[in-house]
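Protein chain data
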Amino acid sequence: MAVVIEGLNNNTLGTATALPLVEDPAGRGLWSAFGSGAIDPAVSGNAWSDPDYWRFEALAGDRVSASMDTSVSDLNSYFEIRSAADIAIASSQDDGPGTDAFVSNFVVPSSGTYYVRAGKESSSSVSGSYGLRIDLARGIDLESDANYRNNSISQADNLRFSHAVAGHAVGTAAGNIMAGEAAILDIDYFSLGLLTAGNAVDVKAHLPSASILQARVSVVDSQGMPLADTAGDGSDDHFLGTVVASGVYFAKVEANSGSGHSAQYVLDVDIADSIAPTVTGLQGIPGANGTTSSLSGRIVVSFSEQIDLSSVNSGVWVLRSAGLDDAFNTADDGVYGLASSSNVNASSQSVELFVESGPPTTNGRYRFSIAPGILDRAGNPLDGDANGAGGDQFERTFSLALPNVLVPEGPSNDTQQTATPLTFTEAPSGSGYFHSAVGLGSIDPLSDSDWWSF
């Protein structure tokens, strides 16, 4: 890939040197550009004694990393990513190796032209040359590695998975194995999430044409113990193996040689998973055919594996009352709307649901069901009856028996106008002592408020 030399007069936004981004490897979502410049003169007390402006094009949602490499000079680098209005929106001084500046995984807010203004640490008076690299991930993930952030399992980057092919969870991320600093060597960890025994894992590092990296790719468990690699000797850029014990696993990328400013890679992950997800737990409703004296209006569903976020929607969950005829799917059934919590993310094995109208207040039989539209990350549909074959509904039938002395909150008592009334009774009669009925309600979610009137 060609290196762009800074222009003779690129010290303003209007005269910024263009950095054309090139997708390399082709079709894999990593776009890069390299520039070369120098900060001279370097005046102490002024970070911008010789500002260099560079510009590049980006789309909303793109993820950008930018780094200044000063391995061949003594420059103490500093730079900012700036908007078309010449406003700083990200900056770095020493977030890369040594005193190198490095902005990692900046999410582009809107499509347009963006700028890098390169300079130096304000108090430094040492001039010098630098290399500038822009990495842009489009439609794929990008590591977050400022100050070697993803250098450990505990700080591993999460991967987003999709399932274009049924039974396969696939994800892609770009990264760079930076030069080391003191005793630190750059190692990149990516979380593969919870894997089930029998899952086949294929991880491959693809290198851009200008990359100097000789990569080693492995998969380790949460204790750092490696999974057996059947693709080679375990020291190359391709891992292939089968999960023996269910647990959380991580892809690990490191350098056999060639770490540094141009040690880029694109990591492809393919998890072959034919095992359908099952429901492993329910909170907020009783066991099968059980009876409860109260419902909070909150239900938490736990699954055997991580689920596909796109399949989490209101249409797959149903809470239904049997009505007076004590039979489901008849005209007098009551159906309660359920909404999922915003806390669900790509790492979730559970979903928190709320009854939109508040907790049910009518005694009788109820049925909570989950349609097989719930999918795992590999696109396998729910195995509702846990018989080993996906594609069937989960059901839990139970009964609600509220104590007669309690007044349940109404289905919508969250305003003064819809407050639930608490009546007073004089006891003993003629004593002049009145007490109210006992109300039963719940505050869920935390923003909920219940009004009672008397």
User: Anything to note?
Assistant: The domain at 146-272 is CATH 2.60.120.380 (Jelly Rolls). The mean pLDDT is 92.
